[in-house]
Design the sequence.
């Protein structure tokens, strides 16, 4: 089976072809880079409008080159239905509907956060892992129970990447800030910042205010970056450990763009090793926003008959992972 995926929840205009028999994913992405500041929803949507046709065309060309028969040989079109920025989602939804109708194939509406989880489950071969999604706009722990991915714990304010990006904007660094914090932290000494975990939930706003204040007070930025990483990732590792303990699961997968950070992966790996659990982090192209994960989950949903009639295919900027009935695992009651 071959599924064409389209992603465009925020910054990555991306299309992909997933061939389930070969287990091969071809991804073409065009990132939006703001001239200044963070992601501006209107500019990001303009970027989607410009870039989606080109990335889809590249993937369609690839599909035609690798097709066994005539044409592109595509069985379904999958798209990111949410959560994300409304103006971006609407453009991607329109493109996906038009493409499904043109190719005369079913449409599959994918939850972007469940896709972050499922790409890790698909590649690791884990059965029922806990997932830490550490992305720009989100930060949560997911665990499977009774046919849904339940949110076991989450941020009480901003997503983890957005929190880091707010600090880097404050010190005048361009977007995205996460990789710059990772680089700067290598030369820094730990600077103490508030550590805020409440049960299974956590908060970043106080940490960010303290980090900005420290920068204004003249603390070396490298030290603040080292403090940010140790504090924020320590919080995420603590809550991930609690989620493993709560669910009795011994498998953890990582999802989301912040998962590209080596220090975060190191801390999660050490935590898992200490408790005898297994840890899997997908390669970077599947951690940051990408259409590959949309196509892979789209294929599983298509195979389960979980397709979307065009009149019911509206997007949902607040689409939570626990709203999704999991139709594709074959163990919906466990
Ligand atoms: P979501 O999946 O919630 O829609 P998103 O659209 O913002 O997230 P992602 O690609 O998942 O996109 O994540 C982007 C975020 O990842 C940005 O905030 C960026 O700063 C952060 N990031 C990227 N690389 C690193 C890194 N090496 N260390 C820390 N953060 C990083």
Sequence:
């Amino acid at each position: 089976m071959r599924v064409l995926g389209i992603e465009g929840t925020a910054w990555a205009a991306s299309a992909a072809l997933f061939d389930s028999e070969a287990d091969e994913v071809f991804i073409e992405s065009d990132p939006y880079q703001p001239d200044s500041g963070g992601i501006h929803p209107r500019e990001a949507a303009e970027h989607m409008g410009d870039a989606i046709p080109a990335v889809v065309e590249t993937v369609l060309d690839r599909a035609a080159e690798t097709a066994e028969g005539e044409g592109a040989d595509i069985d379904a079109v999958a798209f990111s239905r949410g959560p994300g920025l409304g103006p971006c989602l609407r453009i991607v939804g329109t493109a996906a509907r038009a493409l499904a109708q043109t190719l005369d194939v079913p449409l599959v509406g994918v939850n972007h956060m469940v896709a972050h989880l499922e790409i890790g489950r698909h590649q690791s071969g884990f059965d029922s892992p806990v997932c830490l999604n550490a992305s720009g706009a989100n930060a949560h722990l997911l665990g499977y129970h009774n046919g849904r991915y339940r949110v076991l714990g989450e941020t009480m304010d901003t997503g983890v990447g957005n929190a880091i990006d707010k600090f880097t904007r404050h010190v005048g660094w361009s977007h995205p800030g996460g990789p710059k914090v990772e680089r700067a932290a290598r030369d820094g000494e730990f600077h103490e910042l508030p550590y805020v975990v409440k049960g299974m939930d956590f908060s970043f706003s106080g940490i960010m205010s303290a980090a900005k204040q420290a920068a204004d007070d003249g603390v070396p930025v490298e030290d603040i970056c080292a403090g940010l990483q140790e504090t924020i990732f320590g919080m995420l590792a603590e809550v991930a450990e609690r989620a493993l303990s709560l669910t009795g699961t011994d498998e953890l997968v990582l999802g989301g763009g912040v998962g590209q950070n080596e220090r975060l992966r190191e801390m999660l790996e050490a935590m898992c090793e200490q408790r005898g659990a297994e840890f899997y982090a997908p390669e970077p192209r599947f951690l940051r926003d990408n259409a590959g994960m949309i196509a892979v989950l789209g294929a599983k949903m298509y195979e389960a008959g979980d397709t979307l009639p065009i009149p019911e295919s509206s997007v949902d900027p607040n689409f939570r992972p626990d709203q999704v009935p999991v139709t594709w695992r074959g163990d919906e009651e466990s």
Summary: The chain has two domains: 2-115+289-323, 128-285. The chain has ten helices and twelve strands. The radius of gyration is 20 Å. Residues 2 and 186 are 43 Å apart (CA to CA).
